[in-house]
Write a structure and sequence with these properties.
Structural class: alpha+beta
Largest sheet: 5 strands, antiparallel
Number of strands: 24
Shape: elongated
Order of helices and strands: EEHEEEEEEEHEEEEEEEHEEEEEEEE
Radius of gyration: 39 Å
Distance between the termini: 120 Å
Strand order of the largest sheet: 8-7-6-3-9
Mean pLDDT: 83
Number of domains: 3
Helix content: 10-25%
Amino acid sequence: MPLCLCLPQDAKSKNTRPTAAIPPTLTAAILLVIAVKPVLRLGLALVALLAILQISACSRGRRVLETAYVSAPQAILRDQVAAVYKKTGSLKNGEAVQVLERERRFARVRTASGDEGWVEQRALVSQQVYDRCQKLAQQEQNSPVQAAGTTRNQTNIHLEPNREAEHLYQLDQGSKVSLLRRASSEKKVPGAPAKRAVPEKTDKKGQPQPTIRALEDWWLVRDAQGRVGWILARMVDIDAPLEIAQYAEGQRIVAFFVLNQVPDGEKKVAQYLVLLTEPKDGLPFDYNQIRVFTWNARRHRYETAYRERNLDGVLPVTVSQETFEKEGSLPVFVLHVKDDAGNVSERKYKLNTPMVRRVLAPGEQPLPKPSARRGRRR
């Protein structure tokens, strides 16, 4: 049926104007638009909603600047960078966070649980530092343990034996660690004012004298979680058994090893190899003497079965078992020692309680007797 368009009446005439008929094709088009319009509205609404979600997601992705890790023992999240703030969450050492925004001293971060807030930037380290920590742990996972120790105070685990080196993890006071390697570095306190230049010292002949630097020792350690790094040597105590530590005679125990166990009645007692050195930091060797303590079952006490001094010993020392034709299976330990030219060679020893003897490699000559080495100063 044709659609008619009724025109309004003329104000000066009582007659109405004739109606104009719309063609059938145009009528069908108008009806189609009217019918489809609600569907178009719904479609447009869905398209708009998807666009908003996509824009929001893109914006959320762009806000994440990088991943960082918490290097402080503990840190709090605050709702704003101001003197007065509310706590929005807390962070623990080693935790990964997403950095959303940075200011001069603070960074806005998001945790894995979705908490957001501001934290001091000095409490964070980069992904690069975290990757270096993981790489160091992987490199040292099979390194032989030289001794066990306990931390004296809360201390940082550095990537290098240096106070200014980057660090991620921290050890609590009383943490148990395995000691792997020793190193020395110049003592530099972070934040200390730079020293003024001083004239170079000369001797009586006008020749320049070497500058004496203050050095401090470091230990490469592995903790119970497998984390590896360097800590100050004075921050850790060597857990040497008291029965042998009492014989240190004023020397510093560097490392100790259980060689084997011997029976004493119904119990077994360990016999030890102990490395010692002078109680000083910055020495050019890791240890300069060794002692082997064996157990006297008749007197129920430790005795020194072997002692060697004036060594330029270098860690690590390895301990194992080896079979000898007439003596059977015996504990063996291998030292690495530097000569006067700085070359490092191996020395193997065997313990056939209570005797300790060198095990010479093919073609190796025996060393001079200890008496010929007396008077050598270190």
